[in-house]
Each structure stands twice: as structure tokens, then as C-alpha cells.
Amino acid sequence: MLAYATRKLLISIPVLFFATLVAFLLVATVDPIAEQRVFLLSQPGGAEQVARLEASLGLDKPLVERYGTWLGDLARGDMGSSTENGRAVTTLLGEAIPVTLRLVVAATVISVVFGVAVGVVSAVRKYSVFDNVSTFFAFLFFAMPVFWLGAVLKDLGIRFNDWWGRRIFFTIGEQSPRLDADFWGTWADRAGHIILPALTLILIQLAATSRFQRSAMLDVLESDYVRTARAKGVPRHRVVTRHALRNALLPVVSYTGLTFGTLIGGTVVTEVVFNWQGMGRLFLDSLLDGDVAVSQGWLLAVGVSVIAVNLLTDLVYGLLDPRVRHG
Amino acid sequence: MDDPNNGVLAVDVVARSQWRTVAGRFFSHRFAVAALLAALAGYAFTFLAEPLTGWNYKELSSDLSQGPSSRHWFGTDTIGHDMFAQSMRGLQVSIHVSMVVATIATVLGTVLGAVQGWFRGRVDAGVGLLVDFLLILPLLPVLMVLATRTRAIGGSSLMFVAVVIGLFLWAPLARVVRGEVFSIREKEFIEAAAALGASNTRIIFRHLIPNVMSSVIVYATLTVATAILVETALAFLGFGIQPPEVSLGALVDEGRDAARTRWWLFYLPGAVLISLVLCVNFVGDGLRDAFDPRQRRRR
Q1: Which residues of chain A carry a pLDDT beneath 70?
Q2: B140, A268: Cβ pair inside 8 Å?
């Protein structure tokens, strides 16, 4: 397992470099001083000021050199600072990442656990009422755009609050503004805010995961070794949990890793719907403002997280399937 | 007696081609057929909406913020757009975009996957790297960046958005086609074709690709659904198709703040969007069952 893990870790290094290149190049040709440029050039002596501004941001250098400088700064933990508010990109990311991480982790953990459970029960009780009902809902939520489902849940939350007479569901923000509470109070408040956004992502993820798990489970249940286990008298529940489930988890593990990128997109949309001050809002604003350093830092942070998640899925896969780690 | 058949009963045996078998199975799948008809009828309706209701999607009427009525089937927004005309235009745009996306992604995925599977070695490894990269790429953020980068060169036009999305969605199909070609290439008929001196191009296009068409068609349908969801999500965030052109995503975005007071602005365009995606998914499911009955109701 150690050799396998080391090999996977080593492969990630060139991928990581590639990610820095993509993150840099995607936004590198944006002019971070587009607005000042137009204004300054209309003023007498503005050309020199523009030149000075360009020099201070390193814009007069060729692209390759700028990439080198960016990479060098990155190695020292400096990702530049926002051209909009002058704050360091690392600080901005440091504030936004925990907010988004709460949402992503909650949605992933809950949707995987429930998705596996629903899929297994559906497969074991094929064509039962439970199977048919879960198939129906999986189909429905699989067809739902994240932004629409999020907005519907938000609207239903508001309507429920009105009907109940007091606020049960929080529909705006990741926590109450100017919250003054102790540790537990803060987390209780955050938990209240996370319910609807997390539910949005969970319902959509759950639809795909449960279908996937059901299909994988059906394949395994029909295999010869499962029939052998049943024939030699292993109790049914033991066959399902010990013999079948372990193998049927493999496709779901790789699926969860592969769709992490999609989940990031869904999170951006959900954060916009529920007005969260997380990674989604940070990215959207940086793009609208032409805030190059922030966009680059954001893309890199997301790229690293995607690589890390895929590394993690590879490792889990190796743990579950000895053929992979010895192959 | 002069019997041309020498006493053997003459039976007309008509061979059923694979396509007819598949078509037969598909048409016995009631949900899928209903979904296909609904999608086609919906598409036809996007052209009939204006003559039927008398409203053009660009037109501003003097009826502001009105609920659904016989005059405005889906009501009107704050500046007097007829929401039915707008929704139908959005539906049309979504269908057009998704068709272009699916065409590009399907052609790219099929050809590149087949090339990978046929040539193996370095070609396979090279394209494979790109496939692996595209599969884990967070698509939406990247498309958002590209949208801001290309605004100056018509990046928010319908065709441009469609082409860009198409260039990013071929990877899953390429992976599947590659896998299937890996097993087909070992069959005798491929060996025979190669022995007869068929060129690589001929083998790929005349022998390999026709034999993976079932997966190609099923994946093409999946791509249509993905394309619709991606296009509308981009428009929702304000990075896709821009006004005066209409996207269902943009309509949902404009309507969502009014969800409580003027529900028709939010719920009706959204319902149109979901119905479209549901229809596409049902058709895809029907096709999968038709091509591979053993897999019936698996997914």
C-alpha cells in the first residue's frame, strides 16, 4: 500500500505544475488595470502613469517571465493581492475556503452515505415500492438544474417561515451578520444556515450516487462468487454487507472523485442563490472586476483541491481493491 | 405436379437488421416514446408560439407584471415581456445549443476514442492525458473564465457558447469508445480487413465506429442533457448567452427574486426547463434499454 500511495503521490506533482500553468494562463491576458488605463490615458501625462502602473504590476514583462515570478511568489506563500481592495489573495482565500468547505463536506458526506444506503436497498429489493419510489425521485432530481432547485428550496423556506410565523429556515448568508455568540452558538447558527444550501446539493448528488450504487450492486449480486457464498450457507445480510458491498463500492468511489469538479460548479451556483460569502462569490466578483490575481489564486486553489480529492479517491480505491495496489 | 420448391414450404424470411430490432424495442418503451414526442412537439411549438399567441419574445407590451391569463399564457414581467414567448424562445435556444454541443462532443469523442483504441501506445497515452484532465476539470468555473475572456469577440453568442461547451464535453464518450474499440479490434473481421490492406482510416470509420454506435447514441443523449444544464447554469450566473437573446437560465435568474410575489416569472420558465431535461433523459433511458435489453432498468 505504501508503494502504491507513493507512486500516486509522485504522479500528482507534474499534474500540480500543469494546474498552475492552466490557472495562470486562463486569466493571464486579462488587463487588471483596464479601467484606470482608459481614465489615465485621457489625462495629460497619463501615458507615463500607465507605464509606471504596468511596471509595478509586472505587466511590461513577457508572459513566461510573469509566470516564473508568479510561481516564485507562490512558493513563498504569496499569491499577490486584489487590485480591487488591495487585500492579499491568501487572506481572501483563507476567509472563503472554510465557508465553502463546510458546504462541500456536508453535502458530499451525507449524499454518499445516503446514496450508498438507498442504492443497496434498491438493489437488494429490486422492483419493490422502495425501489420504484427512489427511481422516480432519482430521475426527477437528476434532471434538475442546481440553480433552479436551490431557488425553489429558498422560496419554499421563506413561505414556510411566513406560514409558521417565525424564522425556521435561514435563506440568506452562511451565518447571521454581526453574530455575537460563543463557540457552540456560532456553530449552531452556521448549521441553521447550511440546511437549505446543503439540501440542494445533496438531493442532486444523491440522485446520481444512488442510481450508480444500485447498478453496481446489481452487477455484483448476480456474480458467481456471491452465488457461491449463498450456496455454502452464508446468511443473506452477511453476503450483502461482506461479500457484495465491498466490491460494489468501487464504482461509487471513483464516481465521487470524478464528479468533484461538477460539485464545485454546483457549489458556486448554490452560494450565489443563497448569498453566501464563500468561494463562489469571491470568484464571481473577481471575474466581474477583472481582478486577475484573485481569479488565478482561486483557480489554483480549486485545481489543487480537485487533484487532492482524486488522489484521495485513488488511495481509497487501493484500500478497497488489492488488485489495484499490487497491479 | 411441377413444384418449384420440391415440396418444401416456401417461407419468405426477411432479415431484421439490428437497427430495426433496436427501433422496435425503443418504440415499445412507452415513456421514452412519449418523451420523444413531447420534446418534438415542444420544439415545433417554439415556432408556433408567436402566430398562436400573437406575442414576439422581444416585444414589450403595455401589460406589466401580470399573472398568467388567456392573453399572456405565462404572464408578463416588469417591463412587459410576454413570458410565454420568452420561455418558448429560451426553450428553442436550449435545444439549438444542446444539439450543436452534442454534435461536436459526439464526433470528437467517437473519433478520438476510436483513434486511441486503434493505435494504442503513444497516441492513446497522449489523448488519454487530455481525457483524464477534462474529466476532472471543474467545467463551470473554466467556462465562466472563458466567457469573460471572449466577450469582446462575440463570446456570448449562441453559437460560440455552444462550440466552447462542446469542446469540453467529449471526454466521457472518448473513454467509453476507447474501451469498446480495445475489445473489437481483436475480432476476426478487423483482422480480415487489415489483412486485405484496408487503411487505418477505413478500419476506424467503416469497421470500428459502426460497431460502437450504440454507446455513441446513448452518450449523445446524455450530452444533450448535460449541455442544457451547463448552458442554463452559465446564463443563470450571467456568463452565458446575453440579452436580448433569451436563455431559460437567465429567465430563472431574473424571476427568482420575485418567486414569492410573482411566481409565474420563476416557476414557469423553470418548469419548461425541467420538462425538457426530463424528456431528454427519458429518451436516453429508452435508447439504452433498446440497445441493450439486459441492462434494462439498471441505471
Answers
A1: 327
A2: yes
What percent helix, strand, coil does chain B show, rounded to 5?
Answer: 70, 0, 25
Residue B298 binned pLDDT confidence (cut-offs 50, 70, 90): very low
**B157 φψ region: left (φ > 0), alpha (ψ -120 to 50), beta (else):** beta
- Which residues of chain B lie closer than 8 angstroms to A258, CB-CB? 135-136
Instruction: Mention every residue, 6+ apart, whose C-beta is less than 8 A from residue A101.
Output: none
- Could you give the CA distance from residue A313 to residue A305 in angstroms, rounded to a whole number? 12
Does B138 lie at the interface with A, CB-CB under 8 angstroms?
yes
Task: Return residues 43-72 of B near A (CB < 8 Å).
Answer: none
Contact (CB<8Å) B237/A269: yes
* A19 lies within 8 A of chain B by CB: no
Interchain CB distance below 8 Å, B237 and A159: no
Contact list in B for residue A215 (CB cut-off 8 A) is 298-299
Cα-flanking dihedrals φ and ψ of residue A300, to 5°? -65, -45
Cβ-based neighbours of B265, under 8 Å, separated by 6 or more: B75, B77, B83, B251, B254, B255, B258, B259
Confidence grade of residue B37 (pLDDT, cut at 50, 70, 90)? very high
Average pLDDT score over residue span B99-123: 94
pLDDT at A80: 85
Alpha-carbon distance values, A113 to A109, A118, A120, B231 (Å) = 6, 9, 11, 30
Go through the domains of chain B in sequence order and give each one's CATH number: 29-51+90-295 (1.10.3720.10)
Distance of CA B150 to the CA centre of its chain: 24
Residue A167 CA to residue A118 CA, distance in Å, equals 31
- B128 contacts B215 by C-beta, under 8 angstroms: no
Shortest CB distance from A261 goes to which of B137, B148, B236? B137
Work out the pLDDT band at B25, boundaries 50, 70, 90: confident
Across the interface, whether the CB atoms of B274 and A143 are under 8 A apart is answered yes
**Residues in CB range of A309: below 8 A, 6 or more apart:** A257, A260
Q: Distance, in angstroms, between B2 CA and closest chain A CA?
A: 57
- What is the C-alpha to C-alpha distance for residues B250 and B230, in angstroms, rounded to an integer? 12
CA dist A104 and A98 (Å) reads 10
Complex-level ipTM: 0.88
Q: Does the beta carbon of A301 lie under 8 angstroms from any beta carbon of chain B?
A: no
pLDDT single digits (tens) A287-312? 988 888 899 999 999 999 999 999 99
According to CATH, the topology of domain A2-326 is MetI-like fold (1.10.3720)
Q: Is the pTM of this model over 0.90?
A: no
pLDDT at residue B295 greater than cutoff 60: no
Report CB contact under 8 Å: B229, A145.
Answer: yes
Determine whether the interchain pair B133/A273 forms a contact, defined as Cβ–Cβ distance below 8 Å: no
Does residue B120 carry a pLDDT above 80?
Answer: yes
Cα–Cα dist A94/A116, whole Å: 33
